[in-house]
Amino acid sequence: MDVAIIGAGRLAKAIRDQCVARGATATLHSRSTGFDVLDPEPADRLGAPHVVVEATDVFTQNANRARQFFSRSTRAANAVARAHGARHVLVSIVGCTRPELQGNGYYAGKAEQERIALAEHERLTIVRSTQWHEFARQNLDRMRLGPLAVVPSMTVQPVALASVADVVARCVTGELPEGIHDVAGPEVTTLWEMTKALPGTGALPVALPVPGRTGKAFRHGALLPGPDAEILGPTFGEWLMAGA
Ligand SMILES: NC(=O)c1ccc[n+]([C@@H]2O[C@H](COP(=O)([O-])OP(=O)(O)OC[C@H]3O[C@@H](n4cnc5c(N)ncnc54)[C@H](OP(=O)(O)O)[C@@H]3O)[C@@H](O)[C@H]2O)c1
């Protein structure tokens, strides 16, 4: 099985490794390899894959920018998949389509990505994950202001990136059926608690209750999974203990 993964970041690499461990051939494609989803007609240098995995990302809170990036990303992935009669597996976020989260530009972009992907491809699988254990440090790095780091108040049920990659790889190989798969970790916590537990950050965290309807939704569980989500360990504490 040939798998073309669009994106070459943390998740994309973990998905590649899990696919290879299952006997597939998997390649990463992004701007660094000459494949830009924002090109009007992205060069089709992805071989003839059986499955196209979409794991691109942009860091922005601007709704227009996020919508534009994620809609073009999913159209590009879809075009490659259709050209080769391949399946399309998209990585998304639990809760991103909830109306109360659309005030957040990034989530509005992910919701648009899902809408377009669902409308344009019949052989689509969406793996929606909760925030990763890795997200706590990623947030600190992104939200640094000198010695301080801003931590938005969020109730979360985090999951290890490696566990998400495992679910995506099972979707790729057909161990899981086409459709929508939600995946989450075992425990409900807050981004604040996760941040406080991180070793060696060198930053003083400052809690930021995000104002408005979206901020309230962040605090009151809009990012938590429903009852059908697959729950996968390790817990955040176990993950930290393992030195991940
Ligand atoms: N962080 C979380 O907790 C979390 C939770 C749930 C879901 N997710 C989702 O997981 C996905 C992957 O996130 P990640 O953290 O692995 O991302 P990442 O490490 O930031 O990697 C993003 C990748 O996108 C590629 N990319 C960016 N612009 C591109 C373009 N114009 N054309 C082609 N490729 C482009 C980049 O490669 P180049 O720079 O080489 O182009 C990069 O390899 C995202 O969609 C995110 O929403 C994240």
Automatic annotation (TrEMBL):
Under the GO molecular function aspect, what terms does this record hold?
Answer: protein-containing complex binding
Cross-referenced InterPro entries, in alphabetical order?
A: ComplexI_NDUFA9_subunit, NAD(P)-bd_dom_sf
The protein, known as: NADH(P)-binding
